[in-house]
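Predict fold of PA domain-containing protein; 382 aa.
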Amino acid sequence: MSLVNKVATLALFIALTTMINVVFGRFIVEKSSIKILRPVAMRSKYNAAIANFGVPNYGGYMIGSVVYAGQGAFGCDSFGTTFKPKFPRPTILIIDRGECYFALKVWNGQKSGAAAVLIADILDEPLITMDSPEESKEADDFIEKLSIPSALINLSFANTLKQALKKGEEVVLKIDWSKSLPHPDERVEYELWTNTNDECGARCDEQMNFVKNFKGHAQILEKGGYSLFTPHYITSFCQRCINQGRYCAPDPEKDFGDGYDGKDIVFENLRQLCVHRVGKEINRSWVWWDYVTDFHIRCSMKEKKYSKECAESVVESLAEQARQVGQGDRGVVTILPTLIINNAQYRGKPEAKCGIKGYMFRLQGENGTQDLSKWRLNHFLK
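Predicted 3D structure, encoded as tokens:
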């Protein structure tokens, strides 16, 4: 299939946005493995949910002794002390959940000498990913300075560790991140959870700035076969949206009677998923980055241009760029005018005379004169 036909296929996918029964990915909690090494009688393995801040030791592991910050010591203020285990090992500090941001607890733990922090859940519930605060006066002071790993552990596991410490036993843990980043084919496989809404405040601006800044690096890595990237779009269940409420996104203006609706976001999310899917099928998965950045610039909600028509204009623009780059022996179009016949490229000064039965065409270029006078006019009409 030619590039033009495949681009047409892409346009067809985008036009079929009513086919909304596409499986959207679920948000995945990234986990690390924690193994109790001591006491020997307690040896067993548990899961912990890796935080989306700090620096996890991906591909590696850490062995350390556990210290409990204490009941009621939530880590919302500086501890004013350095936590040290009985034996000379790195400190893995347990801090109870509650009262303040996860990230602030970890920051105060880091200042108190912890090599890693485990946040102990206070409810019996599934593990969640600990997020950093969106808006906080303290955030600018410490979020970028967090350099230790942290994770959330469930209530029963936390109680097991606390009971052992209460008995005066040394508790040694091995936190293992070796399976947190799978790479079975020697590529780095990574995902981005995002949304096409550009009116959700600072977090929307933050994610779009990331896409713009990382775009060049991501495309180089993908073209070189060093990485495998997959975008995901977060959806939710509601009553007013698509497919009886199965696929939905929050109303941008939080007003069902004004402006855009959540279904508009779902449709554009689907279009962007289609761009990535079709791009992947033609071994050009990196076009997703071009489409997303162009769409954000040209089809902003703020300018009331967030629409299917604007999205299609972006696709047409990218398709034209793809034609210019060309494939095979055609080469890259860098000189105007350029004539392409039977996928061969001719550049220079064209001279043509057309008649009823045919025409004469000569191209004076850098490699002499190309005589194309034997071509017939009906060649281009059939």
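Residues 3-27, 355-360, 365-369, 371-382 have pLDDT under 50 and may be disordered.
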